[in-house]
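Blinded run. Sample ID left blank on purpose so nobody reads anything into the name before looking at the predicted structure. Input follows.
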Amino acid sequence: MSRPSFESTVTVGNIALSFHRAVAAVTRRVLEAHGHRVRSLEAPHERLFRLQEEGAIDVLVSAWLPSSHHAFLSPYRDRVRVLTAQYQPYCVWAVPPWVPAEMVREVADLARPGLVERMTTAIDGINPGAGISRFSARMVGEYGLDRVGYTFRPGTESGFLSRVEHGLSTGEWFVIPLWRPHYLNRLHHLRPLQDPKGLLGTVDSAGTVVNLAALDRIHPRAVAELDRLRLGNEGVEEIDALINVDGLTPLQAADRYLADFDFGLPA
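Blinded prediction complete.
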């Protein structure tokens, strides 16, 4: 029987959002350090999981479980290994710091008379397959916001960011569906609103998903390092900010971050 080659090509797929590219770049560097060539692929949420189910992706970065991505992973969960969580993501709705906390503390407050007239009632989000988008579309109805004129509109990442930056630069009163980790959390002091109905899901665990059929081709030490990779929300936001604020490429940002990272493995 031939021995597995740890110089094989590994396909790493990531969700087509900036902070997922950040984690994928770190994943790529870990694999490359153990002799692998890496092919990169990205797609929207549901499509990416379908590609792994079809065998086109060896390593998927990352699955948010149990709230956001369980439905996408469950059809083939028995054919993959989910590594230990790298960070603990969660979703929020947030408002700029100049929207008074005494007026808006929780989502339902957005419908208060006197406030609706001040707020922009069009709520813009990212692509419709994202957990935050699915949750937000439901929230507009569950909290009765649609009855006073609010709407939720999914869109692109670039459109979402442009909309947020415009609102912040003009002092607009608006609400945005947001999540940690995301570099915006480091810049603008956005204030999360309480969600008493729990419609935004729980705090998830974000783990790398490895296709079992690919494990024989991936160096065991690379798998061990990925399993020990504890970026945390702060670490992901740091890399994401290096990309979006400092202008580094995802691989440059990963290199800067990993220069000081300790996997905690024996030599």
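Unblinding after everyone has recorded impressions. Residues 18-32 form the longest helix (15 residues).
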